[in-house]
Structure formats: C-alpha cells, structure tokens
Amino acid sequence: MNIIYHHRTRGRHVEGVHIRGIVHALREMGHEVTVVSFPGADPEHEAAPAAGHARRSGLARLISGMPGVLFELLELLYNPVTWFRVGGMLRNPRPDLIYERYSLFLFATVWLARMRGIPIVLEINDSALVQRVRPLRLKKLARYIEGWCMRQATGLVFISTWFRDQAIDAYGQIAPSVISPNAVDLSRFDPARFDARRLRAERGLSYRIVCGHIGVFAHWHGVDAFVEAIAARLAEVPELALVFVGDGVTLPAVRALVAERGLADRVILPGRVGHDEIASWIACMDYAVLPNSNHYGSPMKLFEFMGMGVPVVAPDYAPVAEVIRDAQTGWLFPHGETAACVERVLALALCVEERRRIGTAARDYIRRERQWRNNAEQLLSLLPSASAS
Questions:
Q1: pTM: predicted TM-score of the whole model, two decimal places
Q2: What is the per-residue pLDDT for 386?
Q3: Which residues are bridge partners to 331 per DSSP?
Q4: Looking at domain 191-369, which of 3.40.50.2000, 2.60.200.30, 3.90.180.10, 3.40.50.2300 is its CATH number?
Q5: What are the residue ranges spanned by the domains of the chain?
Q6: Minimal CA–CA distance to 104: which of 84, 83, 134?
Q7: Which CATH class is domain 2-183+372-388?
Q8: Does residue 10 or residue 281 have the better pLDDT?
C-alpha cells in the first residue's frame, strides 16, 4: 500500500522513537510510507543530545512564555498548513491510507480524507480529556473537534484501554478501534549485543546489584520522591546501586540530595544520553524501576527494559497493568505509594533467580506481542480487508 504518515510533532523525543518504529515496521512489511512532518522536523533521524538540547531550550522558552490561548490559536491555524501540505499529496499517486498521530485542534487531515474517500486511521496519544502539562484553555472547542475527528475517522489506535474508555464516555460511538501500547525494536534492544561485564566496569558498577531508570526527570515521574525515600535505606543493601539516566527539571534537586547525603557512589546520574546509547545502559542493569506514571500513558522505557530482559518494578496504573503481569513479567505496586515501591526495590535486590526468571519472561512477552510489527499489523486491521491485503 501507499501510506502517508502525518504528524505535528518535532519528533525529537519519545514520539520520534514511536514514529520511526511504526514507519520502519510498515516498510519492512512491503508498504511505501511517506512521512509528512512539521516544517523543519525530521523524526526519521534522531538529533544528537547536545544539539537537540540547544534547539530545544530556545523553543521551550518561547512556548513557555506564550499565553495559552495564543498557543492554542496557533495550533488551530496549523489546519490551513496541513490542508495545503497534505492535500497536495493526495493526487498522484493517490494514497491507500493516511495514518496520523493525532494532535489537539487538528482536523484538516480527517476532513481531507473524508472528502477524497481515503481511509484515515488516527493514533491517539494525547487528548482534551486528560490532564496535560500545559493547561488547556479552549477546552470546549478542543473537545468538539476531537469528538468529530474520532467519529469521522476510519479507525482509531489507542495506547490503553483506559484511554479508549474515556473517549467513549465523552464522545459516544466513535470509530472502530484497537488497543496498541508502545513497542520496541528487538534488533536494537538485544542483550546479546552487549558485553555487560565490560560496560559495568567502565561505568564503576562492577560487583554491584544495579537497579535503573531511564526517562525525564519531571515531578509526575516521581524520581525525586523515590530517591529521597530510598536514600536513608540504601545502607540496608550495601551492594545496591541506583542508575538514573535522563535530564529534566527535578535533576538538580536529585543531584543536590545525592551530594548532601554522600551517595555519589550509590546513586549514579549520567544525565541525558542519545537513544542509541540507551540499550547499553539498560545492559548494565539487573532490574529497573518506574516510580510513577499516569492513568493513560504507555511508558516507552517499560518496553525497552523488558525487551532487554530487564524486569521492572512499576505502578499499577491500568495501562501498565495491561503490559506487566505481577510476579510474571514484572512487579506492580499501588500507584502513588512511594514507600511500597521502595520496599519492593529493596526486597528484590537479593532475589537473583527471581529477577532472572521474570526478566526472561518479560523479553519473551515482548518478542511475541510488542514489537513494532505487532503495532503495524494492528493499525492495518482497522482497514477494510480488501484495502489491507
């Protein structure tokens, strides 16, 4: 099939990983995919961390200082841009499918697809129905547009059942849908590619039990609260080291806490690394922890840990519990209960065989059900059988 993949993101972070995963999987299945991006964005190539951070800082300052209503009006004004950019690609050759990563206030693609009789599938990662980092000002308008798009699309891909249930409750009968959490490229996230002993030695982790985390240091991810809670108890397991890879607003506070408690040799904070380096850090870990998440998200790092055979301690939010079976492919604790998370992490530090058993089961699950090809097959299942064949 000839497929257009349209999105309105910069494609530089987790969204870029997701876009590349779906696009490459569709191409490997023999489909021709043209990616239509935000002007200047190139999600098929990851920016180096330093260069990406420099560009991000200027844009972040501009966006953060912009009044919310003005920002949302600019999002609305992106519809004419989409109309001309995507509309110009619907003639020769005519696409068999438009696949769009849904964005708030964006309706032009659905409108065009309906006018031209082209199937369109929306991937729902964001919504006017959930709590967002930037508060939504034009909420009624956003929900009106969103409801229309979800009813008019050929199909919808939700990252969790919880997310789909919220949409049905708010908008009534929506287009046919599938639940498709995130996935992973097992050719990149393969423990056999790495000499874990050498990597541990290079990073000062020899003879340690390593519990790790990779992600943004933000309040809602709970890393700062977790480190503060476990700091006083690390002496209970002298062999345990924490490796928390990433950057963000709470990292300075975590660094300060680690320095104040004299834990620099127990809590390793490498900062942000490029996506191509992440697997090598996971290879150093015996198990991992997600201190917090949210009710609707599908954390990308969860799949990357599991793909590497590294079992995860994670909060029992519904989207996470759809992926992790407690004590089978990982461990769940009651979300919002940092103390319970700490207890589980400390207890597992000495459970070598259990970690290995569950890590193996986690990778087997990913191999069977959560590679990017699985996601591509799911989205194509939403098309009429004659078009999908």
A1: 0.90
A2: 40
A3: 313
A4: 3.40.50.2000
A5: 2-183+372-388, 191-369
A6: 134
A7: alpha beta
A8: 281
